[in-house]
Amino acid sequence: MSEIFLQQFHTFGDVVRYTNFSKQETMAKLGLPEDVTHELVSRDVSVGYYALVEFANAVPTPDFFTEECRWWDIDQIPALLFDHNDMIKLALKTLRRQLSYQPIGYNLLPDKFTMPDLQQLYETILGQLLDRRNFQKRMLGYDILERLEERKTGGAHKAPYLYRFDKEKYEKALADEILFVG
Amino acid sequence: MSEIFLQQFHTFGDVVRYTNFSKQETMAKLGLPEDVTHELVSRDVSVGYYALVEFANAVPTPDFFTEECRWWDIDQIPALLFDHNDMIKLALKTLRRQLSYQPIGYNLLPDKFTMPDLQQLYETILGQLLDRRNFQKRMLGYDILERLEERKTGGAHKAPYLYRFDKEKYEKALADEILFVG
DNA sequence: CCAAAAGTGTTCTCCGTACACCCATGT
DNA sequence: ACATGGGTGTACGGAGAACACTTTTGG
């Protein structure tokens, strides 16, 4: 996958990073010997990024230490090792904040999409329903969408217009708001 | 110094991080041999934090690799090694954004201070002048300031009121807004 | 008395929110 | 015909920005 929306959100570096499981449990789960001197001589630092991807296209594969690696519904994530649940919580919080003053969706929607499509994406990320009329006004207000003459036919009801991101304006809007892409 | 306002803002981890000086120049300035394989086998990661301190109380001391370590006016910082100028730029940008929706000043002002004192702090950080009346309304709107009966006398003009941060409300306001302190 | 700084209130605009009606389409 | 979803416009309220007059104080 290329051209992924990837956003650094925080670096985690606490000396003690066990939230759900004790160090003993953690080491046992990892199949590692418990190194009692570890915290005294070293520190693990994790740089957190979140990405927006069409999840059906991204196939998670476990690494050597990983028992299982797959997609989860955000509300059903089980207790993870270390502070990884905190990481996810913070990623979502940051993404939601970013979404509130930032257009998002370029890499998540097909080239042409309808306003309801975009709204559903927002509602999924925010975890709440939005007002159709206000949503549309806000999105159009960003001045990054181009409405096509075409409509999406084949649906069961009134045919909605198709829109396309104006790539240039979209990139510009992102650059103005995002502090750093790296 | 203790109780410092310290905020992580970004982690820098590009493979190539020379902005102002070439690798040759950089290594020469550091008095290090130029290791041509360095970028192939390792990567330097810097976790950036900014702090707000009363700068007169913080005495910078150079470390082994540092030629000079002292305070600079933000507009007069010379060309630094690596991407350190970018780091400073981003720190300021983040701080300014944070300031726009966040009360700040607890560790930077004396226990009792006047509204003009606070405004001057904001103007210094933001690098622009603010309207007295609107500034005051906004600050009071945060509901974290307590106005004392006292006024600051001895000035050349009308005596301004003294204010004090309501520590409890101040902490609460910070906790509500700051995503992560770590 | 006068200059300079500080206290205070009103108006306007913009943005976000709440809300209602009409239109198109497949069943 | 009708249920469902989509297109569109209006009204209200709060926050920020623009802006002026009065009061105090030292010189």
Count interface residues per chain for the largest interface. Answer: A-B, 15 and 16 residues
Oligomer: homodimer
Structural class of chain A: alpha+beta
Number of strands of chain A: 5
SSE topology string of chain A: EHHEHEHHEEH
Largest sheet of chain A: 3 strands, antiparallel
Strand content of chain A: 15-25%
- For the largest sheet of chain A, list the strands in their spatial order: 3-5-4
Distance between the termini of chain A: 17 Å
Name the shape of chain A in a single word: elongated
Low-confidence spans of chain A: none
C-alpha-based Rg of chain A, rounded: 21 Å
Counting DSSP H or I runs of 4 or more residues, the number of helices of chain A is: 6
Overall pLDDT level of chain A: 90
Number of domains of chain A: 2
Q: Report the helical percentage of chain A.
A: 25-40%
